[in-house]
Design a protein that fits this description.
There is one protein chain. The chain has 326 residues and is an alpha+beta fold. The chain folds into 2 domains: 25-274, Jelly Rolls; 287-326. The chain is 20% helix and 32% strand. It has 3 helices and 18 strands. Strands 1, 3, 4, 6, 12, 13, 14 and 17 form an 8-stranded antiparallel beta sheet that branches. The structure holds calcium ion. Calcium ion binds next to loops.
Length: 326
């Protein structure tokens, strides 16, 4: 093959891969749980979805809150979701006049109740189900950067902890800079065989990056998908461009009829395994003295071996060059 042909083949393959990456639909699109353009025929109502408070419908996006103080808005699927294994992808845009300071962020929900406003990103506290918070304002004193994404599973009895920005009861979290981007930003929640994975595509590379993953997450069927946002003294526009729910096909045990699934109480099967990325960092820094000693010992041993081998090679080389001279 000539150089030109090779280059053309490489370019073609690249574009094919880029298109494939953008079209990587994870399953069967469930329209009754999805929000797609055109959202509304009359600008007043959206089929299958209800909204409340300061929500604004336009042709190109649904604005949960405007960039004004003290606003809140929410958008809820009207149809309970009986899909067992799913992936929920949300195309969003968070933007506003504040260069680095903004608030509060928005939340994705899979919960028992719907359309109930409250203090958690515009929705009720002590929710039952799963909440994912895309938090743009640091309320607590902890030394982490923002925006910050945090997940929480709740059986209806635990309050969201604003003082730690939800980290107190978090099942996983990550940093993600998603504000004021001039390209498309996405978040995905995948719930397959009781494993919950949150991924983001916020770098403009059409690539999913894992935020966190938790095994053994018990969530019943029949809950509602929703999204809500709030502003405080600081504000942002919180816009939703699309929401897509895909049914993911999985192989299942023939005896598993999933009958009791609707009565499951939201919880973690292995609560000890649930951890946060900052807990990881803490674990790594608070290594025991013995581990530190082992690490230092291995490091010194490695250095010693390298020095000896290097010296041997150096000597061989010297011998050879001496031989060449004679
Ligand atoms: Ca916050």
């Amino acid at each position: 093959m000539t150089g030109k042909r090779v280059a053309a083949a490489v370019v073609c393959a690249y574009f094919f891969l880029v298109i494939a990456a953008q079209d990587d639909e994870p399953g069967y699109l469930k329209r009754e749980h999805s929000l797609l353009k055109p959202y509304s025929g009359n600008g007043m109502s959206i089929p299958m979805w209800d909204f409340r408070d300061n929500v604004m419908i336009t042709n190109n996006f649904i604005r949960l809150t405007q960039d004004h103080q003290g606003k809140r808005g929410s958008l809820w699927n009207r149809v309970p979701c009986f899909v067992r294994d799913w992936e929920f992808r949300v195309h969003f845009k968070v933007h506003g006049g504040g260069r680095s300071l903004a608030a509060d962020g928005f939340a994705l929900w899979y919960t028992k109740s719907r359309m109930e406003p409250g203090p958690v990103f515009g929705s009720r506290d002590e929710f039952t189900g799963f909440g994912l918070f895309l938090d743009t304002y640091k309320n607590g004193p902890q030394a982490v950067s923002f925006p910050f994404i945090t997940g929480m599973i709740n059986n209806g009895s635990v309050a969201y902890d604003h003082q730690t920005d939800g980290r107190k009861n978090s099942i996983g979290n990550c940093l993600a800079t998603f504000r004021n981007k001039d390209y498309d930003t996405y978040i995905s929640v995948r719930y397959v065989k009781q494993e919950l994975t949150v991924s983001v595509d916020v770098d403009g590379k059409s690539e999913w990056k894992e935020c966190f993953k938790v095994e053994g997450v018990l969530l019943p069927t029949g809950y509602f998908l929703g999204v809500s946002a709030a502003t405080g003294d600081l504000a942002d526009n919180h816009d939703i461009l699309s929401m897509k729910l895909y049914e993911v096909e999985v192989e299942r045990d023939p005896n598993d009829d999933g009958l009791e699934l609707s009565s499951v109480i939201p919880q973690l099967k292995y609560p000890d395994r649930s951890k946060t990325s900052s807990d990881d960092a803490h674990r790594n820094t608070s290594m025991s003295g013995f581990k530190l000693f082992l690490l230092a010992f291995c490091g010194l041993l490695g250095l010693g071996v390298c020095l000896v081998v290097g010296f041997m090679i150096f000597q061989k080389h010297q011998e050879r060059s001496r031989k060449r001279f004679y």
